[in-house]
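Extended Data, panel c. Modelled sequence:
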Amino acid sequence: MLSAPPSVARPEPRWPVIVATFAVVGLYFVLPDSLRIGSASAIALVVAVLVIAATIARLRGQHTANAVLAYAVLAVLTVGLLFGVGALVAAVVKHTERAPDLLRSASALWATNILVFATWYWRLDGGGPNERESNDAHVEGAFLFPQMAFEGPGEGVASIASETSWRPGFVDYLFVSFNTSTAFSPTDVPVLSRWAKLASMLQSLISLVTVVLLAARAVNML
């Protein structure tokens, strides 16, 4: 996941995704025990083992194994996010957590929501990073980035992406995810595929729930 096999001429960096993954793990430690599906240390160990295994598989050119292990990492992080949001709603309704803990937990889950869905978008768009890096340019996918929509300056060039051999990186998907969680819409990057639309709807819903709970609890503390 850090570097590509020699056959890939222009590999897609994996380190931003690894940083985001362990940032999510770090945020998991912020949550109280009642909002965790398991021990934070155990989750961190499982994620670390899966990331190392995915890295080894990629360096060996085993793209299928790499993808399966990466999906396993995402599954662990997503289950933790959904459990945390559900438990947060229950804690607010039942008043089982102190206000400072609820505010801290809602903030951590909101940030986790951004990172987890950014990683999902990065992993799924255009067949995933292993598929994208085998192409010279990213000209079609689940999201319509501006580089794909605007014409390039050259004669007969369909888009800027084609002209400059542009491909999206993790930061591009992080931008989409951040906008979805803050503006409840993808803003300047239209969503094209059905799976991406459903994922964006779910992300917006999770963000809305955490923001509303944050606001409600803050008002009650005044």
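The mean pLDDT is 86. This feature is highlighted in the accompanying rendering.
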